[in-house]
Amino acid sequence: MNKLATLHGKRWISRCYSSLSSQSLRVCVVGSGPAGFYTAEKMLKAHQGAEVDIIDRLPTPFGLVRSGVAPDHPETKIVVNQFSRVPLNERCSFFGNVSLGSSVSLSELREMYHVVVLAYGAESDRVLGVPGEDLEGIYSAREFVWWYNGHPDCSDLDPDLKSTDTAVILGQGNVALDVARILLRPTTELAKTDIAEHALASLQESSIRKVYLVGRRGPVQAACTAKELREVLGIKDLYINILESDLSKSAADEEEMKNSRIQRRVYEILSKAARSQPSHPISGQRELHFVFFRRPEKFLHSDDSSGRVTGVRLEKTVLKENSGSGRQSAVGTGQYEDLGCGLVLKSIGYKSVPVDGLPFDHHKGVVPNIRGRVLSNTHTEPLIFENGLYVVGWLKRGPTGIVATNLYCAEETVASISEDLDQGVLTPTLPRPGREGLQQLLDSKGVRFVPFNGWEQIDLKEKSLGSLKNKPREKITRWGELLKAANRESVTEQ
After folding, report:
1. Is 394 a known ligand-binding residue?
2. Where is FAD bound in this sequence (predicted)?
């Protein structure tokens, strides 16, 4: 942002200060996913005088509940009914189409609000750092999930599902299983969900018949949950391949299973599936292969100039116990094998991105914090905190957990805010312009935000379009169309 814009913003803020008489606690939550909504809900309940504003760069709220939860998991999305009641509180407002950084800076928010809680999650991806990672036909699982869920950033992704019969998914967590399920599930079943229309059309023409789920470690260490695993194994008329030799357990494996009910259940389900499957698939049957003890060494491509991926070179691994941690790491053996494919999806983890003025741990991909309080510097004693700045959700703890995990995460952060208020660390008696300041600042920059009733217009439109196709909704997947549906068609996307 240039100096003139910053000066302009500060003038708006100072003008708002002079117009304030009585003052309540002004809180801004950046990000409207589960972590953001739980935080707003808890703040409104805990502090009766607080005004809470939620901002999001998208015109639509709900974060990964809308763009991350698989379309065939409607029960998980029911939580939006609870979230939708939060902005109906007169002390709460939603500001969609407002991007932290370009629409408003972190320093401007901190000047306008007593409390800023960052809940914008993880919108980037970890990288493998192996040769060929930028070949055509290789995508992150996040991009693919956003594509089939109708996220406007990925509506033009257009993965080629017709030129190959084999897809390799690197990773064996829940997101990897979601992606495998969407590739393999009958499209007649997906057609009844809120899957994006462009994704459904592509899947209906898909040639993919074999999906390989590749993990560095063994079945004992598979990072998925039993529920997700049972669901993918239960796909109609699907051949499952799990090598019995991969199921042998070491003493260290037994110890891991003893300490984790989830790992024990996952291993039991995989063992049962391995025993109950025929030795070969029936002709034309779709196949799901679990490949354990392998890690990608490089991506292969054809000799022509297409630049497309044609396979993955995998290194065989063995497990080595980390001293004292109780965990086992995969170590390469120097033995390699090639797995041919025309589509690769990397499900190796999401990554948060920093913004100007925010302390950030680039190695862990999180904001350094203690119970949600942002640390200025982790290398000093005593510890120094960023006054009035907090984090919640994936930005706070890393990209782990389920939707409900964010409830406990939000409760902890809100408890820290309450403690800081009680101890006088935060001083809400000092006037801050809050909502009025934000509205005027956005107006001064020509940013027309989408309020919650704008989202309600999008919601009505999507449900109306969906009813014509016997779907719960037909998602609007492009920025311009979303803004038009919200009656904000003259807004530029953030």
Report:
1. yes
2. 35, 64, 100, 394
